[in-house]
UniProtKB/TrEMBL annotation:
InterPro entries: Phage_holin_4_2 (IPR007165)
Keyword S-adenosyl-L-methionine: no
Transmembrane segment boundaries: 5-21, 27-46, 53-79, 85-108
Key word Transmembrane helix present: yes
UniProt entry keywords in alphabetical sequence: Membrane, Transmembrane, Transmembrane helix
Organism: Alkalihalophilus marmarensis DSM 21297
Name recorded for this polypeptide: Membrane protein
């Protein structure tokens, strides 16, 4: 049950980012739900591999390169969804990944406890 609530919260976060920024587009709420599911799958399978492969640069940047890895997983999710989820450029993906991390850290995680 907690996983489903997390998916819905992530979908709402994605919709909020799509509402605020022009370069981040979602087709609707169901597209946001599908994007949230795909993003969680990509984060579970692809992200650990990318983190291990980029470990030296992550250490050199004191962990800030993890935002780049998150942006890459977000762009991969958008590529898998096609026209229902569009991100215009890597900069927009990087900004969105930072916002997602901040919102989850300061809003979602305190609500779960």
């Amino acid at each position: 049950m907690r996983w489903i609530i997390g998916l819905v919260i992530n979908a709402v976060i994605l919709l909020l980012i799509a509402y605020v920024f022009d370069g981040f587009e979602l087709a609707g709420f169901w597209a946001a739900i599908v994007a949230s599911v795909l993003l969680s799958i990509v984060n579970a399978i692809v992200k650990p591999v990318l983190v291990v492969l980029t470990l030296p640069i992550t250490i050199l940047t004191l962990g800030l390169f993890l935002f780049v890895v998150s942006a890459l997983t977000l762009m991969l999710t958008a590529a898998l969804m096609g026209d229902a989820f569009v991100i215009n450029g890597f900069g927009m993906a990087l900004l969105a990944s930072i916002l997602i991390a901040l919102i989850q850290t300061f809003v979602v995680k305190p609500l779960r406890n």
